[in-house]
Design goal:
Blueprint (H helix, E strand, L loop, with lengths): L3 E2 L3 E2 L16 H5 L3 H11 L5 E2 H8 L3 H13 L3 E7 L2 E6 L4 H23 L1
Helix pairs in contact: 2-3, 3-4
Length: 122
Amino acid sequence: MSKTVSRGYSKNSTKFDTESKVLEIGPLEDKFPCSRSKILDFLIVFDDYDYSISEIARHSGLSFKTALNEIRALVDDSFIVKTRTSGKSIMYKLNPDSDSVQLISKLAMNIAINRIKDSSRN
């Protein structure tokens, strides 16, 4: 069975059904509203693949230039890694060997769980 996530993306498919931001408001963005949170939310939720800067920008709801600057900083901090080159595009994903990334992923999951609990109480 396919796990459907916000805005028409199937976790088991290889293609987005939309050309826009794929998460309404991710868990990290909800608590820490900034560009890096949007990028990290996207890469945490859709961690099965690697993505170009253009894809990360589009699906995080950011401009290319903002995404480029934030990705450079996230690479410098070892939160994300370059995985390969596809044509002229460099592909990126979360750094699976980073203890910080593992903690941030757990934090995002806890925030998401608490949001679900809070919404079911209302």
